[in-house]
């Protein structure tokens, strides 16, 4: 497959965490300044940085001269590690390490599905360090904060919950490919990272794109997030016929327009 935005087809690798895991990173060279912020892409659960949305963002960066940073979480794509070892804390650590090593100045963080949760945790981590100014904006696509609890655990029949707790994992059928291995560790760690329980501020504009026809993350979930971001400048755009992936040409155009508007 041809990927014109990848000047060097091979990623470079960043060593992250106590286990020294290798995180694959691709950078589209370009400007990253206060007036034209760089962009960090945070992908979804079981997705990778060469998906259609991430690739379209990198190609936009190549066309416009904007720096775009993409990466794969551990256990995803070209990064090292077993997917089954992954947790929200681990993947958020990956994102913060890439942010610290590969970006300079204010950034627009684009988070898709689980990446929306990761982006919010990144904002929380930066705020704890007094670095809220590093965020120019968040652009969240069908964001799925707290999905391990709200959209997985609470939706599981009692017998599935029992099997997960007993066996340590459960294979969830997926319409997108092979079954998804859901681990007890993922569920339990997710509870330490929940963000929807109380209002919080990320300290930058937030733009949310959500499909009303999304079968995986109901549009009401995005509304819950909006109510939690009471102090921030938030715009929620509902796409009536949009699904979870939001990867149609018209969806890609909306995503790129939101990024352009944000910076």
TrEMBL record:
Signal peptide: none annotated. Its EC number is 3.1.1.93, 3.1.2.22. It comes from Ancylobacter vacuolatus. SUPFAM superfamilies: alpha/beta-Hydrolases. The keyword Acyltransferase does not apply. This is Palmitoyl-protein thioesterase ABHD10, mitochondrial. Residues 61-238 form the AB hydrolase-1 domain. It comes from the Bacteria. Pfam families: Abhydrolase_6 (PF12697). It is an enzyme of class 3 (hydrolase). Acts as an acyl-protein thioesterase that hydrolyzes fatty acids from acylated residues in proteins. Regulates the mitochondrial S-depalmitoylation of the nucleophilic active site residue of peroxiredoxin-5/PRDX5, a key antioxidant protein, therefore modulating mitochondrial antioxidant ability. Also catalyzes the deglucuronidation of mycophenolic acid acyl-glucuronide, an active metabolite of the immunosuppressant drug mycophenolate. Keywords: Hydrolase, Transit peptide. It catalyses: S-hexadecanoyl-L-cysteinyl-[protein] + H2O = L-cysteinyl-[protein] + hexadecanoate + H(+); mycophenolic acid O-acyl-beta-D-glucuronide + H2O = mycophenolate + D-glucuronate + H(+).
């Amino acid at each position: 497959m041809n990927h014109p935005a990848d000047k060097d087809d091979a990623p470079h690798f960043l060593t992250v965490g106590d286990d020294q895991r290798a995180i694959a990173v691709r950078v589209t060279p370009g400007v990253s300044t206060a007036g034209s912020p760089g962009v960090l892409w945070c992908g979804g659960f079981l997705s990778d940085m060469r998906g259609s949305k991430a690739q379209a963002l990198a190609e936009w960066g190549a066309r416009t001269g904007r720096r775009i940073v993409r990466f794969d979480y551990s256990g995803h794509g070209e990064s090292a590690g077993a997917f089954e070892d992954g947790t929200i804390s681990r993947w958020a650590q990956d994102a913060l390490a890439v942010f610290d090593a590969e970006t300079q100045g204010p950034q627009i963080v684009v988070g898709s599905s689980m990446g929306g949760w990761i982006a919010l945790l990144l904002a929380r981590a930066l705020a704890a360090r007094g670095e809220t100014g590093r965020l120019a904006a968040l652009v969240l696509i069908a964001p799925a904060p707290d999905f391990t609890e709200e959209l997985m655990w609470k939706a599981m029949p009692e017998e599935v919950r029992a099997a997960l707790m007993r066996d340590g994992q459960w294979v969830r059928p997926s319409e997108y490919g092979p079954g998804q291995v859901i681990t007890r560790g993922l569920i339990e760690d997710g509870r330490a990272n929940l963000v929807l329980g109380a209002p919080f501020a990320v300290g930058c504009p937030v733009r949310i794109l959500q499909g009303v026809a999304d079968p995986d993350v109901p549009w009401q979930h995005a509304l819950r997030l909006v109510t939690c971001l009471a102090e921030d400048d938030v715009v929620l755009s509902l796409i009536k016929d949009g699904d979870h992936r939001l990867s149609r040409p018209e969806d890609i155009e909306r995503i790129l327009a939101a990024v352009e508007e944000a910076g």
